[in-house]
Terminase large subunit gp17-like C-terminal domain-containing protein (Acetobacter pasteurianus NBRC 3278), 185 residues
Amino acid sequence: MISIVDAPPASGAVFRRWDLAATKQIGTRDPDWTAGVKMLRTYEGRYCVLDIVRLRGTPDEVEAVITATASRDGQQVPIVLPQDPGQAGVAQVQYLTRRLAGYRVESVRETGDKATRAAPFASQVNAGNVSLVRAPWNRAFLEEAAQFPAGTHDDQIDAASGAFDMLVQSMSRRPLTDEELEEFY
């Protein structure tokens, strides 16, 4: 149900949402991935996954990739970080936010299970309202999506559903511009 497009939509709201892990692949272990999904919502209500960055690395490697990705995305792309419960989660988000000075960074506390959080995004996928920009990461994303929620990994889907949620919230938080209103009438 997810189409693959050669070029992204011309405009819309964009967020980069991260799902964090911090375990390097060693030997036969199969640790979680850190995944950063950059998603766009068009003014017509369609969604496009523009980019996915994922790695299995140490905390320092994860930090380096997040800051490099922010630099590549530019200051206009808000960054969303998950905040795990407890003091360690608060400290991690505060630390990364300091490292991302100059960028708009939001943290979100996740509640509920991943399948429940992914359900609104899955609804849009099932309605044919989600596309991916053609890229080398497409196969890994589609394979993970096909196995979700029973698959071994869910990091990209968790980040994508979080990006989707932020896009939906952002559209409900701000009034439409005159140009956006003209497109609807």
User: Anything to note?
Assistant: The two ends are 29 Å apart (CA to CA).
